[in-house]
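Summarise this fold before class:
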Amino acid sequence: MTQGPAMAHPFLRAMDRLYLTCIWVAGTAIFFMSLIIPWGVFTRYMLGTGSQWPEPIAILLMMVFTFIGAAAAYRANGHIAVTMLTDALPRPLQAGAAVLVDALMVVACGFVAWYGTRLCIETWGQSVAELPWLPVGVTYASLPLGSAITLLFVLERRLLGPQDQRAVVRYEEAPQAEPAA
């Protein structure tokens, strides 16, 4: 069920913004992780006193990079997909397999969102040993967040087709009325 451009425009704009946000968040996480890890190595081997904070912060950033970045990769159709079996199917069965894959993705995203949220809630009162100010639940927050975002991208894919197969949508400003002379 594909909607017309006028109906899909606000939804596509929101999905595009969410997608770009995911890319920036994942990129920022990997950037800071690439600065933090060398600092930990430097303090351990050059100064002889290892800092306690680089490893747990790097793990947190890796979780963010992995789950938020995976959502962006899914939308861009840049994820790992083994299509050897589905490519060998006749065209009508390929369409059915795509629906099945999307349904399974909805189930997987729902599972991770539900149990990831429960995990965050249950571990919120605990703190990371090296960083007593950081609740353990924060380190797991990218699980339900990333899976909820992926769920939105799965629904977008089902409603509007894969992002990499759609025409580029230009978001133009509404035409301005010309002043009356």
In short: Residues 91 and 97 are 10 Å apart (CA to CA).
